[in-house]
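Hi everyone,

Forwarding the result from last night's run.
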Amino acid sequence: MKTYVTALLLGAATLSRIYGDHFDSSTFEQIAELTTPRNIQVLLEKDVCEALLEVKGPYYLFNPHDGSRVTSGLLGKRFIVRELEDGLKWGEEFPGIHQFYVQPRSPETKIFVNGVEYPGSIAIFGVAGQINIVNDLDIETYVKSILTTQFPTPREPEVLAACAILARTDAYYRSGQGMNSFWHVTAQDTGYSGSALIVNRSLIEKAVDSTKHLILVHSKGVGQSTPFPTTWTENSAGKTAPYTTMFRRDSAVQEKGVTAPHAALSRSESRWSYQIAKKTLGALFDMPKIKSVETFVDGQSNKVYGIRLKDDSDSLDVDFFALQSHLGKKHLQSSDFTVTMQDDSIVFSGYGKGHGVGLCLYSASALAQNGENAVKILSKFFPETYLLNLNAMPGDFLGE
């Protein structure tokens, strides 16, 4: 384990000395809500007719509506699960029960949905003849899974450690939102793929384990001492954009973009261009005769968070992510671009790669290669924040 991790095991008294007036009793209460490591609920399947649910090993089956135990098994079970008029069916029928929760009885028990292994427990919710499937698992395992998916090629260990902290911070933020909903995030949006791709003793597993329970929280303002939505981008081309601006979501803390000097120095090397026929672009958005394209730009970073397409009588606003989804990431490579009209075509010209929010991986890699550790890297991209070790805090708050 990196020595910098042990240096971050700050007690309440230490934090109080560091943050002074900003670290009052309300701060203790806010952090106390986070001191028990949480699970996160990931939506695997939404509104499907059926799915193959297999349990290998002993298990319990609960009704999450009232917490009652419906049944249990010792040898496992493998059947199609579907919603009937009177309740769910998984091999046998469960009259009057439209939701159940499969929980392992042994560490060796394995659960599969449509052939993919998932850690933790599985919840099935039946609604009007269809089912939703949710994976309930601990956040540490979730972080390992999404990092494995998003980093198929090796990265510097300190960059992976920084991303592990960011992914965990985001997971704690998501798990604290909308607690009355059945899930916090979707597998499709996060790239979550269960435990199938997690490799023991990999660089990613080491990065997650060495930063276990560490999250970023803000030290000032309305969102003080609470996690916040975080992410990273491949190459910011010199500046990052605020999360709330690009993702168009409200947040307790108004994030600020920062300058990324390493990416700025190589900005010209990251230049890209994409030309598309007006008719082709119009067909993508059901606007056959495009007359103009306007951009909505974040004034601080010059990142484009949306465009407005106009024809003779109508207009259509499209956010960056929808535009990139339609054009393809290999064509619209980043949010740092301008648009020009050329006869029958439209040209997108830009710099960098990715949405431009959060940690710039290009700059982080340069910093890591220059000897900076994960803590220093994060401090450059997330000012006015500090690291909180959730596993170390309870004793201090309880006076132990």
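Residues 1-35, 394-400 have pLDDT under 50 and may be disordered.

Cheers,
N.
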